[in-house]
Amino acid sequence: MKTLKKAVLPVVACLLACIMLSNPVMAASTNYFSKSIAKMNSLYGGQSNIVTVSSGSVSGDSEDRSITSVTFWGRLTSGSSSCIVYITSPKNTTCHATLSSTGTLTFKGFNGEDPEGDWDVYIVSKGTASTVSSGTLKVNYTY
């Protein structure tokens, strides 16, 4: 009987180790939402109209959701001055960056927040006049 235990025990230990190593570790899932932004105009450093977009329903439980990045793509109309793009999260955090030409801005100041709720976007001209004719807000998050 002792010989059988000595022979079986290493085999069982090896099988258990193989099972443990072959099962994947559960990692956080990722998701995003993307919303179109309406035209925004700013004159002489004044604030444009505020565009409010809703996240809609987002995946995961509120205590598990966490923003990993926020991007804004904007089309700055030909002849427009540079502008500052302001984004306010549902948690009332505001971040800003300068848009000098059509392109994408990345905002890290929202990282760790829950993405669900209403987001506000507006611009302020850095010159005479700025027009962002269209834009897209994209929020990446884990849950």
Overall description:
Helices cover 15% and strands 46% of the residues. The protein contains one helix and nine strands. Strands 1, 2, 4, 7 and 9 form a five-stranded antiparallel sheet that branches. Strands 3-8-5-6 form a four-stranded antiparallel sheet, with no helix packed on it. A hairpin with a 5-residue loop joins strand 5 (83-88) and strand 6. The protein is elongated, with a radius of gyration of 25 Å. The protein starts with a helix and ends with a strand. The relative contact order is 0.30.
Summarize the structure.
15% of the residues lie in helices and 46% in strands. The chain is built from 1 helix and 9 strands.
Architecture blueprint of SSEs:
Blueprint: H1 2-22, E1 30-37, E2 40-43, E3 51-54, E4 66-76, E5 83-88, E6 94-99, E7 103-107, E8 118-125, E9 129-142
Antiparallel strand pairs: 1-9, 2-9, 3-8, 4-7, 4-9, 5-6, 5-8
Strand/helix succession: HEEEEEEEEE
Q: Compute the CA-based radius of gyration.
A: 25 Å
Q: Which structural category fits the helices and strands?
A: mainly beta
Within the CATH hierarchy, at the fold level, what is the topology? Jelly Rolls
Number of domains: 1
CATH class: Mainly Beta
Offer a few descriptive terms.
mainly beta, five-stranded antiparallel sheet, 143 residues, Jelly Rolls
